[in-house]
Design brief:
Length: 181
């Protein structure tokens, strides 16, 4: 029978490791927000898994809203030109907003998002990502909560896709070469 995990060459983070780290981050977020209501803003589609698990690991009151964003570019290289495909339903003015991402790679998506959201005058704006690649550090993209810093490899699972697939993998790892061919 088909099992999507058979397509991995290496597991970087097991389901348990991901969940354990999430619980740590949630406790930190609960402590930092100190009883304030949080508006979680997830970036579709990748952040769906993190949003579901992080929100349930929190004990703070929270609401969830979503944005969909597309970045234009030739081939696999992002151009940094970003367009909103689906905007928030919520007015974030005066709200404590926490952006939730699965991964920050170049940081282009996030840079655009931060500028855009700040113009709506939230009470506060913070960023949480489950994974972060080295380019985000090089580009000095400021992130408040990071699950794991990972090497510059193509990884899938836990929301991260290859051509739309593998998001439903509960672990995170690298794809076997046979998948590409
Ligand atoms: C991925 C990921 C982040 C973004 C990070 O989303 O989920 O949102 O890329 O890349 P960056 O830091 O270089 O901007 P993608 O655009 O692939 O859409 P998806 O979430 O629907 O997979
Ligand atoms: Mn995404
Ligand atoms: Mg993607």
């Amino acid at each position: 029978a088909v099992h999507i995990s058979d397509d991995l060459t290496e597991v970087l983070f097991s389901k348990e490791q991901v969940q354990e780290r999430l619980v740590e981050l949630a406790a930190q977020i609960d402590a930092d927000y100190d009883g304030r209501d949080i508006l979680l803003v997830g970036v579709l589609n990748g952040a769906v898994m993190v949003m579901a698990d992080l929100s349930r690991a929190l004990v703070s009151h929270c609401e969830m809203d979503w944005m969909a964003i597309s970045s234009y570019g030739s081939g696999t290289q992002s151009s940094g030109v970003v367009r909103i495909l689906k905007d928030l339903n919520t007015d974030i003015a005066g709200r404590h907003v926490l952006v939730v991402e699965d991964i920050i790679d170049t940081g282009l998506t996030l840079s655009y998002l931060i500028t855009n959201l700040l113009s709506r005058e939230p009470a506060s704006l913070k960023i949480m990502t489950m994974f972060r690649k080295p380019d985000a550090l090089a580009n000095q993209v400021e992130v408040d909560y990071v699950g794991f810093d990972i090497p510059n490899e193509f990884v899938v699972g836990y929301g991260l896709d290859y051509d739309g697939r593998y998001r439903n993998l509960t672990s995170v790892g690298t794809l076997a070469p046979h998948v590409y061919s």
